[in-house]
Amino acid sequence: MKRVRLGLRFALVVLLLISLLAGCGGPGSQPTGQPNEGQASGKPVKITFWNTMRDYEAAVVQELINEFEKQNPDIDVEMVTVPFGEAQNKFKVAAQAGNAPDVLRAEVAWIAEFAALGFLEPLDEKFTDQEDFLPSALAYGKWNGKTYAVPQVTDALALLYNKKLLAQAGFHRAPETWDEFVQVAKKLTDPSKDQWGFYMRQSEAYFTLPFIWSFGGGLIDVETMKPLINTEGAIKGLEFVKKLRDEYKVFKDDRDFPNDYNTAMQYFKSGKAAMILNGPWATADILTGEAFKDNPDNLGIAPIPQGPEGHTGSPVGGHSYVIYSKSPHKEEAWKLVQFLSTKEAQAKLVLELGLLPTRKSVYEMPEVKANRIITDFKAVMENATPRPVFPQGGLIFAAMDQNFQAFYTGKKTAKEAVEAIVKEWEKLGVKP
Amino acid sequence: MFLTPVALVMALLVFFPLVQGIAFSFTDMNQYNMGNAFSEPSYQFVGLENYRNVWADLVAADSTLRPILVQTAIWTFVNVFFHFTIGLGLALLLNRPIRGRTVYRLLLLVPWAVPSFISALAWRWMFNGSYGFFNLVLTELGLPPINWLGDPFWAMVAVIMTNVWLGVPFMMVTLLGGLQSIPRSLYEAAEIDGAGRWKQFWHITLPMLKPVATVATLLGIIWTFNMFNVIYLVTQGGPVQATEILVTFAYREAFQNWNFGMASTYGVIILSILLVLSAVYLRAMKAERVEGVMD
């Protein structure tokens, strides 16, 4: 009898534990927007800043904030690091509820959507030195004729290459056209040694965009809301990538979608892939790889090769500071944004982290000019292409990722894939 | 009288959100019209339109929902099957008097003690086509590597492997509890009557285990059906939705596309499927028990 009770009790405790655990987990944990304290008490005003940078990057921002707090003893800044992948949803949820942070570091594709939802403070009156900022970065912050964001950093995909490997094969500069690219990549590929000329990420549409643009295709014409993804150029671009894989066999066809960012980096860092497409955010990591750590100059940074008709293109990305429209401390929030966006603050941030500034004047500073990574990327930025700016602009990638994956796995032809994308985009307001 | 507080808490925690969720499924609610702390909601009642859309998609030639339903069924059935068989096997092994039994039991609980998202991320890396553990082992053995997460079939195998690993400990512990509540005297009596091990298992262990096993598998079905973490973190539903199940699909609709009306509709559908499934399952178990030897 005793045994029966023991067994039952054991089972019961287990069940209870499970139901408790199940109740605790889940993605539902609410963001903690700090309530703001009253100003009248003479205590410093507390403002919250959500940062989406990685820890080693956030450390540099924290140094800037410490400096800001020293200069403004009446303002207390609480910086919260929110994982980049969660920030968009977290901010929306918090903003709907009325307790979003005063300042957010927003990815450029989120801004139009947040602005259309009424969550962002227009900055036109305060933001007066706009002509010093790169127009491509500034464009993402404009919605319905108003400016909502101050660009922090900008980026674009470049052709990153291993100079030593290319030189060994007799190439002393980066390929400038896709034809040259094929030659170089073929010569550097030896599947028996797991050695590849290129490593292509097939999971995310973002990394296929350079091919779409350089073959004359596009995404969406925002003026008319007509799709450009179903044009001949876009289809040719897609087919070219497949030809690189199946006909020239210059990159490994592993279609390992969830892992392919890390795998691409691993191949390139160890010198097993001679070329990849990636942005400035990856350079700090790449330089720790065995092919580069003793000789950082081995990392070549070149614009995306040109297509048959001389087109090129690379998606402009980046991040900007935005201010929550319902923040009770907009003045203080603006002071912080202004401080973080000065020429000196930007220079410190980009020099320490190898990122690209958004102020033209920063590019003119001697220390910045002496930074090879920034100057090399500047040439890439000059030919880069802004993505379509409209509220659903951040949502266009879901359909592209799915259908490009279907194309790369052979489930759909290029034409079927782009037609399916247009069909999905109709829900976002695209008019076929 | 005494039930009032309970009824109140239940109403607040269970029925109110449930009714609200069902009500949302009849609206066109999205992030622009849902209203917030500063503006009134402006979403419209659209009647059965969301349900009509689901139905239209279900019968369409290039339906997105139909393959997802099939995948959900495969996912649920295969997972619970392995949870139960492996869990029962381990429980039987651990129910015997062996040395260090507690240590084994504790070790076998590890998968269950680690937060599932951490396990899922670790498994994703083990499935890596170029650097993953499984392909390293395969190539060491002279076998060709498998394209785990890029091939629709193997991606399903991969997520199921992960989830089986995660789910077996619960089944094992629960069944072990059940096994221990079976009085030894029954086995002793059977032995005297000359019943062999197999007969004992078939006529004593299984029937006596049934109440515990029924509840445990039903819970397993419900959890597996709704298991979001593993799918989302290992394959993100890919490649090309080959491992998408109903909950991950509904999640996308809610938190990627922010169509709450449509997402609520999927929620109601998930709830209905589970209710029907549970009712049928419990009835089948009960019917069998009435016919069974023990009653």
TrEMBL record, chain A:
SUPFAM superfamilies: Periplasmic binding protein-like II. One of its GO terms (biological process) is maltodextrin transmembrane transport. One of its GO terms (cellular component) is ATP-binding cassette (ABC) transporter complex, substrate-binding subunit-containing. It holds the Pfam family SBP_bac_1. It is found in: Cell membrane. InterPro entries: Maltose/Cyclodextrin-bd (IPR006060), SBP (IPR006059). One of its GO terms (molecular function) is carbohydrate transmembrane transporter activity. Keywords: Cell membrane, Lipoprotein, Membrane, Signal, Sugar transport, Transport. It is a lipid-anchor. PROSITE patterns: PROKAR_LIPOPROTEIN. Belongs to the bacterial solute-binding protein 1 family. This is Maltodextrin-binding protein. The lineage of its organism: Bacteria, Bacillati, Bacillota, Bacilli, Bacillales.
